[in-house]
Amino acid sequence: MGNDRIRVLLAGESWTSHTVHVKGFDSFTTSEYQEGADALIQGLTEQNIDVEFMPNHEANTAFPSDLSALRGFDVVMLSDIGSNTLLLPPNTFKHSQPGADRCRLLADYVRGGGGLAMIGGYFSFSGIDGKARYQRTALNDVLPVTLVDGDDRAEAPAGVRPVILKADHALFREIDGHWPRFLGYNQLRPKQNCPVLAHVRSAGNGDSTENSDGDVFIAAGEFGDGRSAAFASDCGPHWGPPEFVEWAHYGQFWGNLVRWLARA
């Protein structure tokens, strides 16, 4: 793509909270905008990877609507961004104007040689109350996992730890020892011909993989000339606690994942 450094488009990882405060008879509201991509962007930047961050409210209109624009990036990462944000820009939702199916474009981008990663969250995969609904989109065909119908959250306040199944895979280069625990993940199932690289073990199950719960934690696949990967938990809070974000191998892992997707 004409650039020696890998170029990543990271879409999602932002939200606005609108809170009602009630004090007896009286009430008032406050609003707060937040982003959750700082640690991931820093980790990738330290791995000499260029990141263009597109928060949810910008992605609704600014996410690429043609293949030529998508091909300006080696890898696209979707993190906590529901399919409706891609499918329903204002021109379509408000004004009933036809437009590009950006989930289908992403699928074509992958088959044509692009790299795609979906990172877990309340609006990833199937999502909370099933509202992310990627299983109802063309993107489902190039995800390396099988999505469940309905709400796919596996909340794990006691913590779960991923079990690495293929430690020699490029995603785990220069990473050793136990992984940190996570406080939840999206429930994912294996897909035929897509290797499961890590699955989930409950925190109380010790170190043996024999007692694993069996849900996919990391999977990878090849579709046409491109590659995709699924990471079932958050890249940061709340499912990804400080133990993960501050982990010595945090940046190395995400760098490995992007380099594998980009065939670099």
Mind explaining what this structure looks like?
- The chain is an alpha/beta fold and 264 residues long.
- The protein has eight helices and 13 strands.
- It has helices at residues 38-46, 56-62, 67-70, 83-87, 90-93, 102-111, 242-245, 250-261; strands at 7-12, 14-23, 26-35, 50-54, 75-79, 115-119, 145-147, 153-164, 182-186, 188-190, 196-202, 216-223, 226-231.
- It has a nine-stranded mixed sheet with strand order 4-1-5-6-13-12-11-8-9, sandwiched between helices. A two-stranded antiparallel sheet has the order 2-3. Strands 7-10 form a two-stranded antiparallel sheet.
- A hairpin with a 2-residue loop joins strand 2 and strand 3 (26-35).
- Helix 1 packs across helix 8.
- The longest helix is centred in the C-terminal third of the chain and has 12 residues, at 250-261.
- The radius of gyration is 18 Å and the shape is globular.
- 44% of the residues are buried.
